[in-house]
Amino acid sequence: MHKLSFGALAGAALVLSTVGSAFAHAGISPATAANNATVKAVVTIPHGCDGAATDTVSIKLPEGFVNAKPMAKAGWQIAITKGDYSKAYDNHGTPVTSGALEITWSGGSLPDDQFDEFTIQGQFQGFDAESPALFITTQKCGATEVTWNEIAGPGQNPHTLEHPAPTITVTPAAAGGEHDHMNMGGMDMSAPVTVGNLELTEPFARATLPNQPVGGGYVTITNKGSEADRLVSASSPAAGSVQVHEMKMEGDVMKMRELPDGVEIPAGQSVALSPGGLHLMFMKLNGAFKEGDEVPVTLTFEKAGPVEIKLPVMAASADAPAHDHMKM
Length: 328
What we know:
The protein is an all-beta fold. It contains one helix and 25 strands.
């Protein structure tokens, strides 16, 4: 499905910056992602066009990057070009055959001596082998246009290209189906989810009893950036509301309280939402959390923005994801 014709494609002329190829070329993060992972793809435009300011940025989405939506930017208008995918993909159990194919930001002004980032959230699906996902990017500076679309050939260093396409390498997830997190004798093979400078790992929820009104969800959040961020809210179609809670000893009594201001994620540190401490509380459940199922939840961060993750449902007594309990 993801076959590419390798070789450099001609692009429009662009004066390269002398500060090094990492800053001269349009870039993207994360560099890698797993199939089925929801990611926040951040394309960096490093400078203008031969001295002129950039006023339009268009990003063509690769096949298999689905359910995509752009992040708003102050001073820029967004246009979403939609069309048919080459196959059907999944959106929470519902087949989807069409969606966003290209995102365009226009009407802004990015001076030649500055850089900026353009962000799209989506999910990689259908990558059953390691493959490059190209986010071909065109920047316009008035009448001048630059397209970042070149593809490195076998053994070629992409930094030698004049206009390399921003590329995320997608690796296959665990076998057994798009939403199978319980393979290899119960080991959780789900990959980390990246959003901005944050990495989300170890997600899980506990099974609940029929008619139980609340449920708990857990995840570890690592901030790899140089500035603190904050988890400010959460939501899920599985519950009427989702709150961030803390369990804390007050004297000899363990008490639970909501944290309406969310949780700070300090720069360079990890914060674990885990049983007995910080956690997500799913209120007014729409149905029981059954062991082996998944619970979708959208977490919104102050700087990194929203990201959807899925919590594999463990046993009601579980205190960690399945792989922590795997016995060899």
